[in-house]
Amino acid sequence: MTKPVAKASSVTKTPAVTKTAPEGARGVVDVRVRQAVARCLADLDMRGDVGAPFDRASELFSTLVPALYNGDPDGARAAVLGSDLPTRELLDLVLRARLAVRRRKGRPNERTERERSADAALRALADREDPSQPEDLDRRREIATLHRRLLSLLTDGVLTARPCGTLVHANRPAREALGLRLRELKDTPFLDLFGGKTEGQKIWKAIITEGSLRSREVDLRAVNGRTFPVRMAAARVDGADPRVLVVIRDLTEIRHIRSRLLETEKLGAMAKIAGSVAHEIRNPLNSLFLNADILEDELRDSGAINTSTAEILGVMREEIERLNEIIKNYLSLSKLANANFERLDLNEIVSEFAEEGEEIAARRNVTIDLRLCRGEAAVRADRNMIRRVLVNLVQNAVDSAPMGGRVVIGSRRLVRKIKVWVRDNGKGVADEAIPQLFQPFFSTKERGTGLGLYLSREIVIVHDGQVALRSVKPRGAEATVLLPRLRADDE
Q1: Which CATH superfamily is domain 339-484 in?
Q2: Cβ contacts of residue 400 below 8 Å, gap of 6+?
Q3: Are 129 and 88 in contact (CB under 8 A)?
Q4: DSSP element (H, E) containing 247
Q5: For the segment 126-161, what is each residue's pLDDT rounded down to a tens digit?
Q6: For a tag on the chain, would you pick the N or C end, based on fewer CB atoms within 10 A?
Q7: What are phi and psi of 197, to 5 degrees?
Q8: 137-250 adopts what CATH topology?
Q9: Beta strand pairing status for 243-250 and 342-345?
Q10: pTM above 0.70, yes or no
Q11: Separation of CA 184 from chain center
């Protein structure tokens, strides 16, 4: 083991300063290169803990060090690719050669070229196969491809992070939930994902110290600031390149469904009770309304009616109609489970409803304008329920429109949906009130029941559709209903 070192060391004693200027400069460079090779070999011989055979290491240094010293990237790359040493040992030797050359002084441009050559040598390591395990590189590529495909198929979000707390990778579901782009992902602090830094620090500390995190519900924060609930589990993966593996499942939809089930059960029980009571209340209400009309006629015939009496009788009728409207909504809620679905043309239903809508609009001198699409707008629906939705939406639009205003009812055929909208030219709806408008018992009207839009939403959901309401600039509001479209060949 010491002979090559001695030989290399004896070479360094060769004088080379007595030549002419150009040849002398070349000789000095050769001597420095030989000194660098000898220094690498001596260091390798003294350590004695490198598995590479000494003669093969000497052969590598004799070609690699001059290429690095002279700033020859192609030569450095060829030296690495031409060696038959194992990759792990070859990496150690390349780093030793790089360190030996970096110690030498030189002009800035020479040092830059040496750095480029060293980088080329290191990049060549990634392009070569390990001669000690010829199939190792292909096998690792297959495993990496399989892992990428598995991560792309998962519906749960998967993230990997370094032990220092920065993200390395995230699959598509995780990136979409967090709003992260692939190029923005790397080096993002793990703690930035949490709405509260304190909670994130506790979770990260538990992962690092205990090695894993049992499944638990936490709140994460997306890039746009939206906070959403997830179920998170994590584990620390130790090894040569340690990582932290984190799995998240978005619970937003699950919590929404859970809330809907609780709300449906609660209101379903209430509607069942109210439906049975409504029949008992309806008959007395009709009697009260009829007797109020008879009383007004008798007072007018006798000449005993005056302005004050007429106003009182008018208030009585209005209150009776309001109670009757509440009963209708409760009865409709109790009948949602017994919908009678049939093939219908929405345009036909809207046209039939136009006469009833004009009666509603005439009270405020509001004009109804129909803008229906051509042809059939076929859906599968319950006729009475769809009419109930139209009554509620048009009534709201008429109430919102100014005296002498206009309400537009339109339809449109989309690829898979039929769209029906009702638009008014009133003052619109406040943005903060829109999320609550479809909640039961919430109303922006002074004498509203808060059940009209809620009932409309429940009916549309039973029909596998969607309903929404928005403000329209510069004035007005628009309610939109989307129902699944039936094709000509559908049953």
Answers
A1: Histidine kinase-like ATPase, C-terminal domain (3.30.565.10)
A2: 424, 426, 427, 476, 477
A3: no
A4: strand 243-250
A5: 766 554 454 455 666 676 677 777 776 777 888 888
A6: C
A7: -65, -35
A8: Beta-Lactamase (3.30.450)
A9: unpaired
A10: no
A11: 15
